[in-house]
Amino acid sequence: MNKLMETILHRRAIRRFAERQIEEAALSQILEAGLYAPSAGGRQGPIFAVCQDREVNERLGKIKRANSRPRMASGENYVSREQPSIADDPDLKNAFYDAPTVVTLFAPKNFLFSGEDCAAAAENMMLAADSLGVGSCYIGQGWTAFADPYGQEILKKWGVRADYYAVMQLLLGYPREGDPHPAPKPRREGRILRF
Description:
The protein is α+β, with helices and mostly antiparallel strands and 195 residues long. 32% of the residues lie in helices and 14% in strands. The protein has five helices and four strands; from the N terminus they run ααβαβαβαβ. A four-stranded antiparallel β-sheet has the order 1-2-4-3. Helix 1 (3-10) crosses helix 4 and helix 2 (24-35) runs antiparallel to helix 4 (114-131). The chain is globular. The mean pLDDT is 93. One of its GO terms (molecular function) is oxidoreductase activity, acting on other nitrogenous compounds as donors, with NAD or NADP as acceptor. Residues 8-174 form the Nitroreductase domain. One of its GO terms (biological process) is 2,4,6-trinitrotoluene catabolic process. This is Nitroreductase family protein.
């Protein structure tokens, strides 16, 4: 099996991070992978706001959590038993799970494929992160982190254009020491139709 397939099969969402910041060389490679993601029409619309300020990330993560309304898990309907999400555990107050690096992907408000372009960039970055030993977690509905005066102030401070919106966040950090790598779930049958 080639290295890319090994990385694809190994990558999992990580929601428990070590406190130490990821190394700059690893971060640069991860961001470069995002820059080389496919985009509709080759427009390269998404921009990546990289925040490594623990205070800002914690506050935006709490704002996002307060503005998120996930359907809470129950019985066999859950996101993860190994590393609970905010939908699984109401006691989690930071939607960014204390990740040391949070990349918010912004895209043009008026472009039909903004969400898809950001998702492609995020997947490239998650695969690059895994190949470098960095954990990642994709968090949708990025705009909810900026849905109060503090969030709006941060957007101005970061210089995010008014015609762009936060599509999602990508959390990055080294997996917490001692936590086992999440096990893959069995693949569901019947998802490939061949004719």
